[in-house]
Design a protein that fits this description.
Elements: H1 2-5, H2 12-39, H3 42-60, H4 65-78, H5 86-113, H6 120-134, H7 136-148, H8 152-172, H9 179-203, H10 214-224, H11 226-253, H12 258-294, H13 297-334, H14 344-367, H15 371-394, H16 399-431
Helix pairs in contact: 2-8, 2-12, 3-6, 3-7, 3-11, 3-12, 4-5, 4-7, 5-6, 5-7, 5-10, 6-9, 7-9, 8-9, 11-12, 11-15, 12-13, 12-14, 12-16, 13-14, 13-16, 14-16, 15-16
């Protein structure tokens, strides 16, 4: 009964919105695969996969900066009168990330335009698609700042609007919308929603309205948080490697076309499921951080278990769908572009179950500031992934064997993260004297 009382700690409106946006993220990824598989040739489709992956990888290059901003801003929000510089520093990070995204898009355009097989129009499509994928970097900072000051409902309303808009323009391509029009419209939606989010956070004092002193604020932020940045950066870099190095290996070892499409489809479902886990984790963060700050270990445990339970329900549905209907699902998604191996379903089920418990444990440790512990473990897992990949290539395994090696290491790493969460924030909260 104590576990179910944890529902009282959550905003039901936030739960509904977060569930909607997470479902929208899964649907958007699947719709993108469905549409691109039908409007692009397999080789062109695989190139867009690589460009989009590089754009998303830019988001992972945040290197934990957004989470450090969250921890500091959350502490200021719960105890007003603390860090008065954090709003200006957060604004500086947002502008820095925006500049990085634009620069990355221009570099992508230049790299493609320099190749004789691509026209200027096609190079523009690649560059704008990179920006479309990479703007998640800016959005990630805005999400963390919004949650830190309890503006999560407004942010998720914007996120729901974004998902609906992007899915709509994707589907319009099936009705004849040109690819260049899709990438222009998708980025226009991004621009409007980012502007609305920034305006709201400025009004709440979480971002600074002035653009003055951005270099100075960045120097102060990086100087004041040097040790935390090194730890969170090593964790984020390891995560970047773990979730993206297969995209660097598979096209060169197994080739473009079907192998790359199989890998991307597997990871789209895998990452889409991770977005669903994020529902339980995200709605628990405000109450988890309060309980940890107050030394309320029983509440911290109950809220964390409730977050796990909320995420487990849709995960079970996805796993059952894959177990009974994997062939039909993948055949519908990919059409003639590629055929998913039958063993992809069981591998995905194992990876999704492991990711469920890992994300719950990792979210708790990140938002309570245990950057050193998670960075060490993530680097160990990245090293193990490297060894497993070397073995797969040495043994001459196919794409399925490569994915099986990846899944084996990933499951073991998930178990280690759970142990670390029990020994880290939960044990620390129990030892901390409860607040009055």
């Amino acid at each position: 009964m104590a576990l179910f009382r944890s529902f009282g700690y959550f905003s039901l409106r936030y739960l509904a919105l977060r569930a909607t946006t997470s479902a929208g993220a899964v649907i958007a990824g699947l719709v993108q695969t469905f549409v691109f598989a039908r409007v692009l040739t397999p080789d062109f489709f695989s190139i867009f996969i690589l460009v989009g992956t590089l754009g998303l990888a830019l988001w992972l290059f945040d290197l934990g900066i957004a989470k450090i901003l969250f921890v500091r801003m959350r502490a200021t929000h719960l105890q007003p009168g603390g860090d008065r510089e954090i709003a200006a520093q957060a604004s500086s990070v947002v502008w820095l990330y925006g500049a990085i995204v634009v620069a990355g898009g221009l570099l992508c355009y230049g790299a493609m335009a320099a190749r004789p097989q691509f026209s200027a129009l096609q190079a523009s499509e690649f560059g704008l698609f990179f920006v479309f994928s990479a703007l998640n970097l800016v959005w990630f900072v805005l999400r963390n700042v919004s949650i830190a000051i309890d503006e999560f409902v407004y942010f998720e309303s914007l996120e729901a609007t974004r998902r609906i808009g992007h899915i709509a323009v994707l589907l319009a391509m099936l009705a004849g919308l040109p690819l260049i029009a899709f990438v222009v419209l998708a980025n226009a939606i991004w621009a409007v929603l980012i502007a609305l989010s920034v305006r709201r956070l400025i009004a709440r004092g979480a971002l600074a309205g002035s653009l003055r002193g951005i270099p100075k604020c960045l120097r102060m932020f990086f100087g004041d948080n040097r040790s935390e940045l090194l730890r969170s950066g090593s964790f984020a870099a390891s995560e970047l490697y773990i979730y993206n190095f297969p995209y660097m290996i598979v096209p060169f070892v197994f080739g473009l076309g079907a192998p790359t499409i199989i890998l991307d489809t597997t990871f789209k479902v895998f990452r889409g499921a991770a977005l669903i886990y994020g529902v339980g984790c995200d709605i628990a963060v405000p109450r988890q951080t309060r309980a940890y700050a107050e030394g309320d270990a029983p509440t911290l445990v109950r809220v964390t278990l409730m977050a796990l339970a909320i995420s487990a329900a849709p995960t079970a549905i996805l796993c059952l769908a894959l177990y009974f209907s994997a062939d039909a699902i993948f055949s519908f998604l990919l059409g003639p572009a590629a055929t998913m191996p039958k063993s992809a379903g069981p591998l995905l089920i194992a990876m999704m179950a492991a990711n469920l418990v890992q994300n719950t444990a990792t979210s708790l440790m990140i938002h309570t500031g245990f950057f050193r512990e998670i960075s060490r473990l993530a680097m160990t897992i990245a090293a193990a992934m490297t060894l497993a990949s070397v073995y797969a290539m040495w043994a001459g395994l196919d794409i399925v064997g490569f994915l099986a090696c990846y899944a084996c290491v990933y499951v073991c790493g998930a178990v280690a993260f759970v142990v670390l969460a029990l020994k880290g924030p939960i044990q620390t909260a129990r030892a901390r004297p409860a607040a009055a």
